[in-house]
Amino acid sequence: MKYPRRLLAASLALFVVIPAAQAWGPLGHSIVAALAQRHLSPAAEAEVERLLAADHTTQLADVASWPDQIQDDPAQATLWQQTRKLHYINFRGGPGCDYVPPRDCRDGECITAGLAHYVEILKDKSQSDAARLAALKFVVHFAGDIHQPLHAGYRDDLGGNKYQVQFEGKGSNLHKVWDSGMLKTRGLDWQSYTAKLDAEGPAQLPPPITPLDDPYAQWAEESCRLTAAPGFYPDGHKIGQAYVDAELPLAENQLRIAGRRLAEVLNLALEQ
Fold it and tell me: Where does the record locate the signal sequence feature (predicted)?
């Protein structure tokens, strides 16, 4: 797939059925970013801070939701249209969630290809700092997106957006509950939540999925398989405390895994 150089900082236009949504919401994205930043190498940390200086910050958490936020900025309308479909992958083979690129990532049009694309820009020092900063923001954000299970689903329900539920006495949908609803039940801000999860130690990573040789494809398969597990879609469309007790630890583990993997990606990309 060819990318015109003028669009390198913008991105692929990826086909996805699911409409735009904030995976994890700002809280979850900030947690993933902050967890990763705690485990950067000195060289990667220095380069992250150098690139972020243009945005007058040193914290990845401050820019982690930017790829979602640009949809509300008229000045970024073109960039939003070019990138709005990068946040997802649809597994079209059913609950087995086996990744078949020609079917699930046609012409490189899915989040796995998007992640690879932006990582390449980020580590390419011949690119402008502006392009690399944009790439950094997308890599941070998409690392969170791909670990939100409903951003890598297989059902024809718009990633849980059409699966209506009752949660905390109000109507909602399963996607929104996973984006932010369950996380907010902890009553923690992102700084406190990050400290809590980091104190649990390094996340245990799932074993490699053979014969996959694409780490981003593996991450997507893992997320898809979570949505296929019994009980993930609540019976009766009602989410009570029992569901939160069962699924919130899973959501938090996904945040921890995303943070660890993001740190590894940034260390490899920025230590050169």
Answer: 1-23
